[in-house]
Amino acid sequence: MTATECVKPDYVILVDEQNREIGLAEKLAAHRENLLHRAFSIFIYRLAPQIEILLQQRAAHKYHSPLLWTNTCCSHPRSGESIIAAGSRRLQEELGISTPLTDLGWFQYNACFDNGLSEHEIDHVLIGKAAEDLVVKPNPEEVHAYRWISIDALQKEYAAHREQFTPWMMQALEIARKGF
What is the CATH classification number for the domain harbouring 158? Predict the structure, then answer.
């Protein structure tokens, strides 16, 4: 990057308690100030022979929750972008995959982190079925590792090592399970 180039800031969509858009805020500012904003969490699943979901371990340099395991992909839509379009964009950017997505609804949560940041989100839960020939190509800027896991194995691992997972993942999984 040259001295004349600037990094364009990311913005999140601020919402009220009913998920109605009320404005925009710079992403890090929203996370510093605990502002309610729109987000999504994606679960890609496969049948092998039982349902397995694709988890990712967040990259070590992420602004919060580094190296924690979470759902397949999560992020924020851009202004004017639908949840499905945003989910498709981020799946491609983070994991190099593409599959049709379904929005199963949303929930609200608020999690505060040791570094002073927070997630205060209306989180849309999206699911997609993996094609049999799915090839995952993780972006190292976003993803440290990935793996497939059955829901039963995930629940056992979560019960034993909750601290290794993001705070929103299991709440999002409860919604996602309705669509598998």
Answer: 3.90.79.10
pLDDT in tens, 23-71: 999 999 999 999 999 999 999 999 978 899 999 999 999 888 999 999 9
Outline where DSSP puts E strands in the chain: 11-15, 21-26, 37-47, 51-58, 69-70, 73-75, 102-112, 118-129, 143-150
The total domain count for the chain is 1
**74: annotated active-site residue:** yes
pLDDT above 60 for 3: no
Q: In terms of residue numbers, what domain contains 152? A: 39-103+123-179
Catalytic residue among 52, 94, 119, 121: 121
Residue 129 domain-assigned (yes or no): yes
* pLDDT for the residue numbered 1: 47
pLDDT of 6 reads: 62
Q: What is the pLDDT of residues 137-147, one digit of tens each?
A: 999 999 999 99
Q: Which of 52, 74, 94, 119 is catalytic?
A: 74
Residue 165 DSSP symbol: B
